[in-house]
């Protein structure tokens, strides 16, 4: 977890928080990360190698925690799959955890809004929460185009916010607020979603 803490406490990621209240109040028009750094998170990374390295290390750290648990709980999902593509992969750690030999992994550059490589299954982990509904639907349509109709699978790994937390005095309500604020500070249109909100994206997407 050290890489995640180092990323979130870095000057790059902390700076947008200072403009968040101004953004909410309508005193600045651009998303706060873009207002502070002159470009969005996804453009900033490639232009700043040290930050990009730290970002990828944090995402890899998360994958090492999350992916084994997903594999263990959903082992049947992965049976019969010969090829798997990890969309929005960063440095590919999540996919490497799914294969026995690293030389079976092929890195394919590109834009997930334009094209997703053909495979039996698509894994998309903690990517959709970075984008608004219409953008998520666009990504998921590309994922659907990449898989065969008969056995293709799109495996989505994301948080699902419990709507009951909105109605009850629950500690998880503050967790949702924190997650949403992180999205507001670091992305242009991202947000965490309830099951109902995910239903809208999935029904209109694949």
Automatic annotation (TrEMBL):
Read off the InterPro entries from this record. Answer: COMT-like, COMT_C, SAM-dependent_MTases_sf
Question: Keyword Transferase, does the record have it?
Answer: yes
In Pfam terms, one family for this protein is Methyltransf_2
Q: Where is the O-methyltransferase C-terminal domain?
A: 100-202
Q: Which UniProt keywords apply?
A: Methyltransferase, S-adenosyl-L-methionine, Transferase
Please name the Gene3D superfamilies in this protein's record: Vaccinia Virus protein VP39
Question: Which SUPFAM superfamilies does this entry report, sorted A to Z?
Answer: S-adenosyl-L-methionine-dependent methyltransferases (SSF53335)
What protein name is recorded for this chain? (RS)-norcoclaurine 6-O-methyltransferase-like
Tell me the gene name. LOC103334925
């Amino acid at each position: 977890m050290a890489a995640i803490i180092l990323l979130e406490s870095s000057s790059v990621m902390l700076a947008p928080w200072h403009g968040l209240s101004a953004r909410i109040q309508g005193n600045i028009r651009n998303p706060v990360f873009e207002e502070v750094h002159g470009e969005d998170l996804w453009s900033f990374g490639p232009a700043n190698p040290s930050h990009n390295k730290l970002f990828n290390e944090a995402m890899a750290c998360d994958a090492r925690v999350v992916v084994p648990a997903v594999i263990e709980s959903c082992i049947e999902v992965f049976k019969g799959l010969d090829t798997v593509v990890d969309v929005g992969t960063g440095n590919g750690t999540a996919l490497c955890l799914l294969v026995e030999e690293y030389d079976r992994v092929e890195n394919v550059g590109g834009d997930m809004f334009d094209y997703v490589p053909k495979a039996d299954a698509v894994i998309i982990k903690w990517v959709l929460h970075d984008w608004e509904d219409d953008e998520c639907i666009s990504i998921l349509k590309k994922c659907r185009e990449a898989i065969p109709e008969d056995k293709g699978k799109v495996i989505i790994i994301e948080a699902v916010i419990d709507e009951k937390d909105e109605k009850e005095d629950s500690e998880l309500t503050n967790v949702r607020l924190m997650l949403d604020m992180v999205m507001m500070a670091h992305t242009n249109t991202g947000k965490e979603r309830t099951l109902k909100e995910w239903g809208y994206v999935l029904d209109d997407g694949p």
